[in-house]
What we know:
The structure holds two protein chains of two kinds. Chain A has 15 helices and nine strands. Chain A is of the alpha+beta class.
Amino acid sequence: MDFNLVTNIENCYFDIPTLLYYSHIPTAAAMLFVGLFVYIKNKELLSARLLFFMALFFSLWVVGDLIIWISPDSRVVMFWWSLINLFEIIVSLLTLYFSYAFLEQKDVFPKMKVFSFLLLLPFIILVSSTWNLLGFDTVSCEATQGPLIYYFYFLEGLLSLSLLIYLIKKITQSVQENRKQVILFSLGVTLFLLSYSGTNIVASLTGDWHILQYGLFGSPIFAAFLAFLIVRYQAFSMKLIGAQALVAGLILLIASQYFFIKEAINFILVGITLILALGFGAVLIRSVMQEVKRKEEMQELSKRLATANQELRRLDAAKSEFISIASHQLRTPLTAIRGYVSLVLEGAYGKVTPTLQDVLNKVYTVNNRMSQLVEDLLSISRIESGRVQYNFAPIQLEPLVAEIVDMLSLMAKEKKLFLKIKLPKKSLPKLSLDVNKIREVISNLIDNAIKYTKEGGVLVSVEAVERCAIVKVKDTGIGVDMKSSERLFQKFTRSSETMKLDVSGTGLGLYVGKTFVEAHGGLLSVESEGPGKGACFIIKFPLEAPAVLPKEKAS
Amino acid sequence: MGNKAGIIFSLFFLPVLFVSLVVYKKYFIERNYQISAEVPCNQFQEICFVYRCDIETEECASVVDGDTSYYKKIERLASALPACDVSKEGCFIAECTSEDSSCKEVLCDYESVDEECSSPGDFSKEDSSSGDESGEAAGSAADTFMEGNDDIESEE
């Protein structure tokens, strides 16, 4: 081989450390891979672009450094050596810029960009002069660095310190939920810069360039931190790409061992490791893919649920408004009608003829039914909205039932039916009841019994059986077909027998009654031997511990 | 690319590209940089750097006086260097000529603590006579070099 002192320098042929290729090629590839994929998936994100440029300049630096090591041509060495310090400063600048953009999620001030460029300017101007490189030493096969190296040290120190201060400030200022992410990111960036820039500076000062090989391993560590952040915190919304990057990086690192292994057994072992890594990597990627898909579906469902929930809230608000309107707008005229009709019937506006009285009574009755319907509808609305309020208080059941029977006795008398009450000999303990609700339920049952009985009458009984207070309303009326008895307690449902009787009803009373009774921990049921054989509606309340001693009551 | 990417591109890439072109022109086309080489030194007439080859750990070649060799440093512009193998006959760069202003011979400095220097006075009359012969050889080699210098061919 013909050597010369310019293009083929003899001293530049020396044993290249095998770690050189392993430390340079996979690290550059890993960084470039992560940077490129993050950029492709997030083109609009500033931090993604910065990471890509960082990776690009880092890779350029690595390529340049590798060429410097292996090239016997002084022109090539001088060319790359003059540029790699510039690349390194740019990487450090971009690391600072990227850290800010990533953590703050915004761009730096334009003044900072101008300042950064001004810092870089001396380097750019002087890089091709002897301030940067004095010449080439054919003995050591190295370029001789000029005074610009001190400016390089100064810049590196300044940028590293600025980054460190910023990251510490960021960690202390971050909220608890973000802190772990910030710490991980800071750790990754710091390790990267310390290992890469730090070893470069040490190597430059000591002249032992072998140290630099180890420093480059900070890069895949940084890439791994980023990939972890991506996977764990969806830092760039690329969980799958993060998993792929991890696997690719791992495979690359394992495969690059082939550069320096010499023994057959190591060849085989690395091969086995590579195959296993490929296999498990594929499984990992597939499972991450499935998880990502499931999560995306869940997110979609969650979005739809949120929309539906919003719509429901809107409907609920509309319902509340309706209830409010109904309670005022519907009740008010009905109350007014009832009031005026009562006044007319009482003779407040003069004598009322029997014909007129009859008509007015019908108006009064219909008005009452209308009021009842409005009340029932409002009750339904409140029940379905969960807005029913119960005012529980200790109540003696017997006087309540007696009061209701007394109130409805006139109605029974008009239909020539009997209405009897049977109370227990021993007083029942007081029960925790909402008296208005229970009054409504029992009134409705007795009212129904009277309505749906042609002849005979209604017996209302109160008794205590097996730690329960039972109220029974038994009639001799139209009865119930037990096969369809469950439907009686549904909204807007009336039995076919009631239809035959041509008695008006909303089909809401039993639904409301059942709801109220169940709210008291009780049960409302019906028993009948069949149509035409009367019916018995039973309310069961669980007994509380008696508050007073029982005493005899007259029936 | 959006505006921000365009700014980053302009801020970093364009200057780097420009600088790379300038550097390329300097080193590849003009070869406008100093090359520093070690060349044989006449220890009888010049203050030379002394290199003591350790036979046990190194491959010692060009051994003069046992395991010791004498050299000096020469710095020249890469464009002024001949594209020939200095270890072969006919390729000589040990002397700076008056025409090459960039050429610089660096002899050993006694005040330098890192380097061992030889002294012409250390050698005996017998050595000086053999030194004359090597001096003559150096002179004829210089002529050869002068001829070779005129025929510098660019590698590219």
